[in-house]
């Protein structure tokens, strides 16, 4: 890792440098909110695992670039949880571009992750074209919806017997409950779980998830909470949302903006969405990122009317190939030799034999045998969460298979019964 002359890495340890970080961030990601107001907001900056790039002739502590990483100890992968260094807060000041700074920050991040024992890195990409060249593969998509008020849902037994609680959001009262429900959803359906469903593991992430600063309301009301409870009072689901009032020719045209919504069983999902879709003076419910197979899509009688919009969400980079492949589970038995290219981390390159039983432990070792599949580390990251198909990548010419039946077996093994994804960008 060699920065251009005059540049150096410096660790960002605490909030004393927040103003400098926010000034750089405003150059990288323009915002209408004044920095003076943003200083009072809780930002999920991973202090102590955030790094600045400084120039020796910088004025007033101006940063040339920065990046951070969240230390996720329980990031869900198919059938398991693993340690992951989640790349975030990446930005380069426009006055310091075209000097190889991003490349050096990525190399610095890879080395840091490997030193910490993290076999994979992940990110949400602000621009889809940037990170593939560093070996990140697009591993999970998202869907957002705009659902008309009163949209009909298919019936679910027991939904009408569940109670609801509506309250103004209060992190002191509700924070622990909501964090637990959100974390538990990573293991739904039972025995399968949802890859990619990251929880607010670090203190910075939890504080940012709990906050509701007026500076970020943008014309909407303060955050509201809906909790679904069973007959014993146990919470089975929740939604956090805001309403925005609007009128069109004396007709109510308000919107409900769902920040996050989780249900641990089908009845709770039905009850939760029934309430959100029937709030007075609202014309529609708008959702943020959700997995492609979120229950609401199956519950809607007319899912087309919800105007689903899909986009990329999670990108995965394999850093320690044998560990990463061992630390996940496979949907079917597999015994395959893969030949992998990796321009940035040559230790991953070469031929590897993977053997695993369905949903059982895997073994990975070096091999001299002829490869069954040939692919780049980017494609291996893309299939790591089980939602992107090896066969689909082969159709695009990105994976080469020696025999069609080998490709079919491997694609089945790498798949997973539910779509990978999350309900927030981090």
Automatic annotation (TrEMBL):
Protein name per Swiss-Prot or TrEMBL: GNAT family N-acetyltransferase
Membership in a protein family: Belongs to the acetyltransferase Eis family.
Assembly behavior: Homohexamer; trimer of dimers.
Protein's UniProt keywords contain Transferase: yes
UniProt cross-references to InterPro entries, sorted A to Z: Acetyltransf_17 (IPR041380), Acetyltransferase_Eis (IPR051554), Acyl_CoA_acyltransferase (IPR016181), Eis_dom (IPR025559), NAcTrfase_Eis (IPR022902), SCP2_sterol-bd_dom_sf (IPR036527)
Listed GO biological process terms: aminoglycoside antibiotic catabolic process
Organism: Leucobacter triazinivorans
Residue stretches making up the Enhanced intracellular survival protein domain: 321-414
Keywords annotated in UniProt: Acyltransferase, Transferase
Binding-site residues, acetyl-CoA: 90-92, 98-103
HAMAP family, sorted: Eis
Signal peptide: none
SUPFAM superfamilies: Acyl-CoA N-acyltransferases (Nat), SCP-like
Catalytic residue positions: 131, 426
Residue ranges occupied by any Eis-like acetyltransferase domain in the UniProt entry: 199-310
């Amino acid at each position: 890792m060699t920065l251009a002359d005059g540049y150096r890495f410096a660790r960002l340890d605490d909030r004393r440098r927040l103003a400098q970080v926010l000034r750089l961030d405003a150059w990288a990601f323009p915002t209408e909110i004044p920095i003076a107001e943003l200083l009072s907001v809780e930002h999920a900056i991973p202090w102590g695992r955030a790094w600045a790039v400084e120039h020796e002739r910088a004025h007033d502590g101006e940063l040339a670039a920065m990046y951070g990483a969240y230390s996720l100890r329980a990031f869900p992968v198919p059938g398991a949880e693993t340690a992951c260094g989640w790349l975030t807060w990446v930005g380069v000041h426009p006055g310091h571009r075209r000097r190889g700074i991003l490349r050096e920050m990525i190399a610095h991040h890879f080395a840091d992750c490997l030193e910490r024992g993290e076999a994979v890195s992940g990110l949400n990409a602000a621009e889809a074209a940037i990170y593939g060249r560093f070996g990140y593969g697009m591993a999970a998509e998202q869907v957002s919806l705009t659902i008309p008020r009163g949209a009909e849902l298919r019936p679910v037994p027991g939904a009408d017997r569940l109670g609801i609680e509506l309250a103004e959001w209060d992190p002191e009262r509700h924070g622990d409950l909501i964090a637990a429900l959100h974390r538990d959803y990573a293991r739904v359906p039972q025995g399968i779980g949802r890859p990619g469903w990251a929880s607010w593991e670090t203190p910075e992430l939890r504080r940012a998830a709990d906050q509701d600063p007026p500076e970020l309301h943008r014309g909407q009301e303060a955050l509201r909470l809906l909790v679904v409870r069973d007959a014993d009072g146990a919470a089975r689901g929740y939604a956090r949302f805001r309403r925005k009032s609007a009128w069109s020719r004396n007709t109510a045209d308000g919107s409900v903006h769902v920040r996050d919504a989780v249900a641990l069983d089908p009845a709770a999902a039905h009850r939760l969405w029934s309430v959100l879709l029937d709030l007075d003076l609202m014309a529609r419910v708008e959702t943020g990122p959700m997995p492609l197979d979120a229950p609401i899509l199956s519950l809607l009688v007319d899912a087309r009317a919800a105007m689903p919009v899909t986009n990329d969400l999670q990108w995965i980079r394999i850093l320690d190939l044998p560990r990463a492949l061992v630390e996940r589970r496979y949907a079917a038995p597999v015994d395959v030799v893969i030949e992998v290219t990796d321009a940035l981390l040559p230790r991953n390159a070469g031929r590897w034999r993977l053997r695993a039983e369905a949903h059982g432990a895997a073994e990975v070792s070096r091999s001299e045998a002829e490869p069954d599949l040939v692919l780049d580390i980017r494609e291996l990251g893309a299939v790591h969460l089980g939602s992107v198909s090896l066969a689909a990548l082969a159709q695009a010419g990105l994976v080469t298979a020696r025999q069609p039946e080998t490709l079919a077996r491997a694609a089945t093994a790498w798949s997973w019964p539910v779509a990978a994804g999350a309900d927030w960008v981090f």
